[in-house]
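DM from R.C. (forwarded with permission)

"hey, sorry to bug you on a friday — could you get me a structure for this? deadline for the figure draft is monday and I only need the backbone to look sensible"
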Amino acid sequence: MSPAKNASKVSPDLDTPTDLPKDAVEKISKALNPLLADAFALYLKTKNFHWHISGRHFRDYHLMLDEQSDQIFATTDALAERVRKVGGTTIRSIGGIAKLQTIKDNDEAYVPPREMLRELMNDNKAMAAAMRKAHKVVDDVEDAASAGLLENFIDETERRTWFLFEASRQEGGNED
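My reply, with the result:
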């Protein structure tokens, strides 16, 4: 198989009908696809830390990270399908994710538990900020459905950030 000449060009067989103008579909796709890539990156990093967490709070952290990774993974299908519903194209491979992701991978052999939680907290904060930017884009092209989807995902992301913050605080301290 030869690589696609223009990955953003929609095949006539995939040309989903929409009332949105072509430029709006391109803006929506360009706003949502990086979020999709980051969701996959954050999902895998959260699973990585879930698998490799250690220490006296192992069970609590292990369960929290499993719950959070499931929640993150659940956003991927909704984001990709939203792009397709409006007639855009989306990520097709791990390589596509790597090109668009802004969440950095962590391939370290060992990461202390508190550092894992703080890194994930910061990644979730960055994800919420990116979702807010995408929300502005979809608002500007009057795509209420994408905006509503993002509003729910922002709330979920802020909740994960909060839980990670609280779990990563030092015992007896109130520092950030």
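R.C.: lifesaver. The CA atoms of residues 38 and 102 lie 6 Å apart.
me: no worries. Residues 1-7 have pLDDT under 50 and may be disordered.
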